[in-house]
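Attaching the record inline, Q. Sequence:
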Amino acid sequence: MSQDEQSGSRVPERESGPTSAAIHPFPRRDMASAVESHKTEPHKAPASAPPVVSFDRFELREILNLYGRRVAEGEWKDYAISFTTHKATFSVYRRASEVPLYRIEKDPTLARKQGAYSVVTATGLILKRGQDLAKVISVIDKRPKLVVI
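Structure, as predicted:
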């Protein structure tokens, strides 16, 4: 009996051919099976990620139009956007080092009660709340008015 037979370990024999498992310790997959497994296993987002409340593009357009007008007037200087699992907030600053002058908030849990949108001042006073964003932000929008004498 040889020493290999006594120890119980067996050395794999080398076979001829490119797909031999004895030559390659990690078996190769051919490209067709790799592509096929990619097709059958679609990428899925982790189930633990909670949904985030955000502004859609039409809401952002309304808010940024107002913001652009007020920046052009020199009243507002900076803004911040925050998206959380409960609400989305667009904060407006007069200077970057201050507390927000106004916060435009979207809270979907209040959509059927008082309205999803609200404008909140720096002190926490809610200026207006409602279902229509354009009407809600009109409380802080100073449009030029024509005065007839």
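The radius of gyration is 32 Å. DSSP finds four helices and five strands in the chain.

More tomorrow.
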